[in-house]
Amino acid sequence: MGVALLQGSPRTVGEKTLVPVALIADFVLGSRFEFFWARPVAVREIGPHGERLMALLPVPGAERRLRMQTTDMLKGMAENLKSSASVDVVFGDTRETQGKAIIPVASVQYAFGAGGGEGTNPGQGEGQKAASGSGGGGSVKARPVAVLEVTPEDTRVLPVMDYTRLADVYAASIVSLNDHHASMAAEGFLNPRVFDILASGGFCISDANPALTKVFGDAIPQYSMATGLRDLVDFFVQQPEKRQPLMERGRRVTAAHTWLGVARRLLRGLEPAWDAGTHSRKTK
To answer: Is the pLDDT of residue 17 over 80?
Structure first.
C-alpha cells in the first residue's frame, strides 16, 4: 500500500500561482482487487506577498475509490483511470467571472467491477470447448467540497456544506445565527432553522420576530440592530452558564414541534370543516 501527499499542476491566476495538494493512496488487496482514492487537502498560494498554505475543510465522502479486478480485460481501464484520477482532477478548471477566478473542488468516486468464469456441461462431449462468460459494470459519483475564489486582493476557500452533517455543525457551534426574510417576520412566520438548531442541541440567536417570543418565550435572544447582535454574541460566548438553560428550554419546546406533530395539529384544525362538508353532503 502506498500513501503520499502530492501536488498537482501549478495554475496561474493573475499574479498568483496556485498549487493543489491532495492525499493519494493506492493499494492492492490480494491479486484480484485494486483500490485507488484521492482526497483534496489544501492549496498552496504563491504570490507577490509571499506563500501560504490554505487548508480545505475535511468533508465526509471526499475520497475517491476505485475497486476493480485486475484481469487482462480491465488492466487497460485501470491504467487510464489512474492516470486521470490525479490531483488535477480533484481540483477543477479555473473559470473567470466578474473579476474573480473560481476553482471548484470536488470529490469524485469511481466504482468498477467485473468478473468472469468458465465451466463444462455434464453432458458435454470430450474435447469440446468449455463455456465461458464475463461481465462488468461501474458508477461515477461527484460531490462538491469547496470553491476557491481568487481575486487580486485575496484568495478564499468557500466550503460547500454537506447538509447531512448540519445537525453536527449546530451541536458543535457555540452560537448559531438565524434570520428571517422581512415578509416572514411581518407575517409572524418562523424560519425552520430555529427548530433545527435547538433540536440539534445548539444555541440560537435570531433577529427580532414576535412569533419567536410567542413560541419560545425568552429561550432565543433576539436583536434588532447589528450592534445588538455583536453584544449578544460576545455576551453568550463568554457566559456558557447563561446559554445552557436557554438551550434546554428551547429544546423542550422543539420536542413538541416535530413535522409529525405539526401535521397532526393541521388535521385536527381541518376536522370541523371536514365534518361540516360530510354532513352537508349527507343531507342533500
So the answer is: yes
Burial environment of residue 24 by CB neighbours within 10 A (0 to 12, 13 to 18, 19 or more): buried
Grid coordinates representing 284 are: 342533500
The DSSP secondary structure of 12-72, one letter per residue, reads: EETTEEEEEEEEEEEEEETTTEEEEEEEEEEEEEEETTEEEEEEPPP-TT----EEEE-SH
188: left (phi over 0), alpha (psi -120 to 50) or beta: left
Residue-level pLDDT at 247: 95
How far apart (Å, rounded) are the C-alpha atoms in residues 211 and 189?
7
What average pLDDT does this structure show over 80-86? 43
- Three-state DSSP at 282 gives helix
Q: How far is residue 53's CA from residue 45's CA, in Å, rounded to a whole number?
A: 6
Q: Which of 8-12, 101-105, 141-145 shows the lowest per-residue confidence on average (mean pLDDT)?
A: 141-145
pLDDT above 70: percentage of residues in the chain? 64
Report the alpha-carbon distance of residue 12 to residue 278 in Å, rounded.
72
- Tally the residues of the chain: 284
Do 190 and 215 meet the contact criterion of CB atoms below 8 Å apart?
A: yes
Q: Are 45 and 51 in contact (CB under 8 A)?
A: yes
| Cβ-proximal residues to 261 (8 Å cutoff; 6+ apart), any chain | none
Pairing of strands 50-55, 16-29: unpaired
Q: What mean pLDDT is reported for the chain? A: 75
